Amino acid sequence: MNLYRYLVPRYLVFPLLFPPLFFSVSFLCDTIQLMSEFCPKDFEERWRQRWKKDAVYTRSFSDDKIPYYVLEMFPYPSGKLHMGHVRNYTLGDTLARFKRMTGHNVLYPIGFDSFGLPAENAAIKHGVNPKSWTLDNVDTMKQQLQLLGLSYDWNCELATCKDDYYRWNQWIFLQFYKKGLVYRKKAYVNWDPVDQTVLANEQVIDGKGWRSGAVVEKKEIAQWYFKITDYAEELLNDLDTLDGWPDRVKQMQRHWIGKSVGSEIDFEVFDGSGKYVETLTVFTTRIDTLYGASYVCIAPEHPLTAAIKSVHVSPTSVQGFIDQCLEQSQADRSDNDKVKLGFETGYKVINPINNEKLPLFIANYVLMDYGTGAVMAVPCHDQRDFAFATQHSLPLKLVIQDPLSSLTLSDFPHAYCEDGLLCNSGPHSGLDSKTARKAITDTLISQKKGRFKAQYRLRDWLISRQRYWGTPIPIVYDEAGEPHAVDESELPVLLPEDVTFDGKGNPLEQSDTFHQFPQPGYRRETDTMDTFVDSSWYFLRYLSAKDDTQAFDPALIKQFLPVDQYIGGVEHACLHLLYARFFTKALRDCGYLEINEPFTRLLTQGMVLKDGAKMSKSLGNTVDPSYIIDRYGADTARLFILFGAPVDRDLEWSDKAVEGSFRFLKRIWALCQSPEKYPLSSPDIVLRARHVCIKKVSHDIARFQYNTAISHLMTLVNTFYHHGCSEDDLRILLLLLAPFAPFMTEELWQQFESTSIHQAAWPTFDPALCETDEVTIVIQVNGKVRDKMTIAKNQERDSLEKVILSRDKIIPYLRDKSPKKIIYVPNKLFNLVI
Ligand code: ANZ
After folding, report:
1. Hey, which of 255, 284, 335 would you mutate to test ligand 1's pocket, going by the most ligand atoms within 8 Å of its Cβ?
2. Which of 64, 464, 639, 696 is the one with CA 20 to 30 A from 787?
3. For the residues of 190-258, what is the DSSP string, one character each?
4. Distance 417 CA to ligand 1 centre (A)
């Protein structure tokens, strides 16, 4: 329905045809039509229903349009949306809407990351069933998401806790198992001796079990791992291909992967009686210091400790020392400022470069899961070794000299940790550190006692959880305790429901149904998978979420992957984003994918703050999104979030700014309600303003500069208020605003068209009309940029010269002289040669 066409006949035709009725009927209509208040509640719900009924946001399978995949990190269904979610999803929705209007076949899905500890804790605390607790929460969150007018294609919806999803976790596990990317190894867990259960780190409070209060013990049990370290080098190198990722995130991943280039050195080990025991390999980045090694030490968890214990005069003292170390956290053990604990084993090792005999220690600061779990200690050149050697009165040997000073050992109370020139290093003395690292390694290579080696800080991914609410690992054990993969035809291995949640033991152990299956004597694995497994491939599943024949559909994957734009919090920089990259590469190597990376562009949005602090339940400073939607409508909530700050910066909550967003929408509403009040008075100005606005908004949305895009729209609205507007102008305004304020624009659009604005085409601009009469020129003094200035186009040199020579920024460079020469490139550059 066209408002203009509608208004004109009514005013003219009514009085002529039905004079007596004119005042009563027409006047009433006008009052209702023209004075209609901006009241979002009147139309938001109606549009939600209509969009759903008309499948306005459903992705099409046709490939006549360019596919575009917008993805947000899916939520954990904790029950309520918080402002962080609202921001995350509004950012994605706005882009999805823009891309649809610019002719893309947009895939914009959502699902629920619905396995995890909170559901299980709720079950233990309140006796509720984890499944119904979770699915209820999913429902609540879904309703809230829909209130915001997010344009998801709900056909893609998935919940990871449902067996139609997690069966494919099990399938992927089996593919990785076949490929040799899964293994089992012993590792320490937190053990609650009272409840006889393994505790997650979050369930250990001040060293005690969260329920029992018992002092938590470390227990070594066999667990499942994914071999992500096989991909360490590729994960590191491919970061360089991710041009659409924030540098900060790439840097965090580089650091997390932590590549160190160095050497391995083999030390022969002899027991107290001088008998050869075995060869111990250490990893070092400073082989140039090898002549300065004064002892070697191993981690308390090192396998060699078993042999040491078996021959030691007091095995209990060895074990006592090991236990003392294991009580400490890894962080404390590595802390430079904490006391270095050591135990002299009585064993000796031989330094392969000079055959010197060195003592072997067990030391708390050596970690088992880095390098080889053994280090050569060089007190003069490593701070921790220095502290340890001083505490244990071990010899200090200076082997690296600072090239810029002639200090000797007694002159410094710390280790000298920099590179330098080698001294006291036999034939290698005099070399610089870098050359020496190569030379010494080469010498050891020729003797088969060493090699070059790169190490990664990245550890294999421990996926076993001794919890109920997760994906059962598809493994069975035979009578001898040997693991076997479950046959693919037997998937899913269902989570049993005949379990109780009393916080004691592992619920899966108690279930009868879980352990009933054909082969007698076999037992199922009762570990479930880390929930990060679920989120490592969900973006592949969205495309065919209901398909029960395969995990994902190769043809659709080819069409839509990699994800064009991923949006989420920077807190996932290392774990989730790295795991998803690993899954993509591993699935590629299993033959199921052809892409190398899952996410082409990544946006990490800023936080939502209140009074300078992160909005969070624990601080009690949250603002409930439903309240804002209820009071102002979803469009205002969205607009505030998008306008309040650049997308990657923190956004400070402000009631005033919310009001401001509401008022802006109200102004547009009023304009569209009574356009006759704003007849077009300066068509030229308005036309230009409109084209400039289309250009700027298109440019800004494509670059996530939503706040500036909205400010351009504000400028346009002001122009309309001052200079009037036509129907076409209003149409353009609504189209440009549609991605930000989907409800109101749709409601107002119906004055012009009966189809959805969200399926309309994005407006185009005429570049000629966007050209302004101004240009910015650069002002240089002796070739160096000193100033910039916006001037009218094609200005004459002489008039310009006067202005430039009297500018504050330029005067100091003139030093009271007039320039020797002036180079003027019209509309670009003005260079003064002094
Ligand atoms: C001898 C040495 C001499 C070292 C020296 C440093 C300085 P990044 O760069 O982090 O890779 N190291 C090796 N494995 C270890 C483990 N499992 N636990 C604790 N420390 C370990 O660090 C490599 C250095 O960390 C190695 O080089 C080793 O100490 C130590 F003047 O070897 B260095």
Report:
1. 284
2. 696
3. EEETTTTEEE-GGGEETTEETTT-PBPEEEEEEEEEE-GGGGHHHHHHGGGG-TBS-HHHHHHHHHHH-
4. 12
Residues written for the chain: 834
Q: Which amino acid is at 183?
A: Y
Q: Is the peptide bond before 492 cis (omega within 30 degrees of 0)?
A: yes
pTM score: 0.85
**Centroid of ligand 1 to alpha carbon of 276 (angstroms):** 25
User: pLDDT tens digit string along 560-602?
Assistant: 999 999 999 998 988 899 999 999 999 999 999 999 999 999 9
- What's the 372 CA to ligand 1 centre distance in angstroms? 10
- Residues of 44-81 as b/e, b for ≥16 C-beta within 10 angstroms? beebbeebeeeebbebeeeeeeebbbbbbbbbbbbbeb
Determine the distance separating the centroid of ligand 1 and the alpha carbon of 303, expressed in angstroms: 19
Residue 283 DSSP SS3: strand
Residue 338 has what pLDDT? 84
Show the tokens assigned to 315: 């095995």
d(CA 316, CA 321): 8
Locate tokens 């020129």: which residue?
A: 777
The pair of three-digit structure tokens given for residue 471, joined into one six-digit string: 């994906």
pLDDT tens profile 465-496? 988 999 999 999 999 999 999 999 999 999 99
For residues 542 and 532, is the Cβ–Cβ distance under 8 A? no
pLDDT of residue 201: 75
Task: Give the single-character DSSP code of 762.
Answer: P
**Nearest-5° angle of CA 370, CA 374, CA 378?**
110
Tell me, what's the pLDDT at 411? Answer: 62
Q: Is the CB of 288 under 6 A from ligand 1?
A: no
Residue ID of nearest Cα to ligand 1 atom 20: 366
Assign residue 258 a region (left: φ > 0; alpha: ψ between -120 and 50; beta: otherwise): left
pLDDT for 409 equals 63
3-state secondary structure of 27: helix
pLDDT tens-place string over residues 510-566:
899 998 876 788 999 999 999 999 999 999 999 999 999 999 999 999 999 999 999
For CA atoms 332, 334, 340, 343, the dihedral sign is positive
Q: How far is CA 782 from CA 302, 786, 788, 831, in A?
A: 67, 10, 15, 7
Q: What is the pLDDT of residue 6?
A: 36
Q: List the chain residues with pLDDT less than 50.
A: 1-34
Beta-bridge partner residues of 264? 283, 451
Q: Where are the alpha helices (DSSP H) in 74-209?
A: 83-101, 117-126, 130-147, 163-178
Element (H, E) at 519: none
